[in-house]
Amino acid sequence: MTRAAVTTDAAGSAGTGTGPGGAPARRLPERAVAPLRGLAGIAGLVVVLEVLPHTGLVSADYLPPASETVGALWHLLAEQTFWTALGDTLTGWGLGLAISVVAGVAAGLVIGSIPVLRAVTASTIEFLRPIPSVALIPVAVLLYGTDLRSKLLLVVYASFWQVIVQVLAGIQDVDPVADDTARSYRLGTWGRLRHVMWPTALPYVMTGVRLAATVALILAVTAELVIGAPGLGQEIAVAQTSGAVPQVYALVLVTGLLGVAVNLVARAVERRALHWHQSVRTEVAV
Amino acid sequence: MTVLTVLRRALLLLGLPVVLFAVWWFATADSTDFYVPPLSAILGAFGKVWTGERLLSDVVPSLLRLTAGYLLAVVVGVGLGLLVGMRRVVRDVLEPVLELFRAIPPPVLVPVIMLFAGIGDTMKVIVIVSGCVWPILLNTVEGVRAVDEVLSDTCRSYGITGAARLRHLVLRAASPQIVTGMRQALSIGIILMVISEMFAASNGLGFTIVQFQRSFAIPEMWSGVLLLGILGFLLSLLFRFAENRVLAWYHGLRRAQRNP
pTM for the whole thing? Predict the structure, then answer.
């Protein structure tokens, strides 16, 4: 096993040395096999979920067979209410994320570039950040009811901190030599912000946005589930109280797929925005 | 001179919080808004509500469930993560499935788990585990995968295998990543502790706060919100303290690498 791995490795590095034409055929399967294995994993999960309720180990009342869940999902897709709910969830998520990214980046840049402000606010940020946003649920209910605003309150509170903390870390990472150079070339505050701080902070900002996107989805669905704001979460609550178990599973599956999609999109955006950054880094590494 | 620096630091640390607190206090001092009671009323309610038997009947059960769920998630997450991370085939097979499970917003699992486990303590612990386990698991997998090859080969050539290799090489090398996962899991755990109690419970912090809100006991409700905030802050402080002890070697290494 080890020996085989070593030889493919050696062949691989030789292949990159001689160019793509010299790459041995054995290298390709290794890369193609991983997605196949992943598919096998998904298929295995589906089979287990299908068989388990039939064996009687788990009651089909609690865990409907995979085929029933998919059937329920199929029915949902044909219903207008499902699409409205999906739209509501995405609206809350997108608006909340946009607000917290803009506010977080703006506040982070201002606080981060003025040392006094940073020193003064550090303790407050450290105190406010770990406050669980679900603590605000009762407040949101009282102030806004099941409105979109109560969803936004929770989403923004949770994801704002993810962004601002990353922006602050990014600005702290600015190379002092680069900053001094910019100063001696008489770049103004705006110029240094634009050409020195922003490029340094961008990778951190992107990490913050990615984390915030995930957190925002969690809080949007939570608000719907617990408060009853319209959206997928509320649909789940309704399906659960009316005992429509396959629908519950189908909706949970939808939120999971939504989460995967959010992850993929966030990573794609990150890769695109940091294209220059990563290419520079790999060049240096080689 | 030293007195001055201490004073300066204290001012920086406490200045803004004191100002904000004062603003809150005076802005609401003669507030007649039913929903925004004066801070003095909230603090009065805080002293009354959370010091007596409620501390034992609501706060302690919540914290116990959180502790149980969190520790269980750490054990399961790290254990499975080691298994998955060390075998390439297992990792390839399970990765998409795990990504899907991680992407499901954890609160959504509350109704599903209620089907299986009813509404007792078991349900709440399972809910916390089911939410906390994913960040720990996936970070462990990443950490195990990123073990330094040279170290790995060195271990092999010194004949360090089995449990010793696991303990001294794999776990050690993955521990910064594992701790990152544990930090993410802690905030998820607090969220799930509160939500599982808001759903169905007869005691606990989330239950009590929602109860106050529904009976329009507004100062009491605000005091609960305050308590949750303090709890989140204290737990993150505790976590950072533990992290600084466990990962002292790692942070020292990073510092040394940054300013040689």
Answer: 0.81
Q: Are both A81 and A209 inside the same structural domain?
A: yes
Of A124, A132, A255, the CB nearest to B16: A124
| Band of pLDDT at residue A1, cut at 50, 70 and 90 | very low
For chain B, percent of residues with pLDDT exceeding 70: 99
Examine residue A223 and state whether it is found in any structural domain, yes or no. Answer: yes
**Within 10 A of A85 (CB to CB), how many other CB atoms are there?**
23
As for how many domains chain A has, the answer is 2
Confidence of residue A217 (pLDDT cuts 50, 70, 90): very high
The count of structural domains within chain B is 1
Q: What is the pLDDT of residue B260?
A: 57
B residues 24-83 closer than 8 Å to A (CB): 35
A227 in B contact zone (CB under 8 Å): no
A117: Cα separation from own chain's centroid: 30
How far apart, in Å, are the Cα atoms of A98 and each of A105, A268, B233?
11, 17, 26
Q: Name chain A contacts of B24, Cβ cutoff 8 Å.
A: none
List of residues 6+ apart from B131 with CB closer than 8 A: B73, B106, B107, B109, B185, B188, B189, B191, B192
Q: Which of A17-21, A117-121, B114-118, B241-245 has the lowest mean pLDDT?
A: A17-21
| B13 occurs within a structural domain | no
- Find the CATH number of the domain harbouring A111: 1.10.3720.10
CATH number at residue B228: 1.10.3720.10
Of A91-95, A164-168, A251-255, B11-15, the one with minimum mean pLDDT is B11-15
| Claim to verify: residue A91 and residue A120 sit in the same structural domain | yes
Q: Each residue of B82-105: pLDDT tens digit?
A: 988 888 888 888 888 888 888 888
What is the span of the domain harbouring residue A51? 2-55
Output the furthest CA–CA distance in chain A (Å, rounded): 76
In 3D space, the residue among A57, A72, A126 whose CA is nearest the CA of residue A246 turns out to be: A72
Q: How far is B75 from chain A (nearest CA, A)?
A: 23
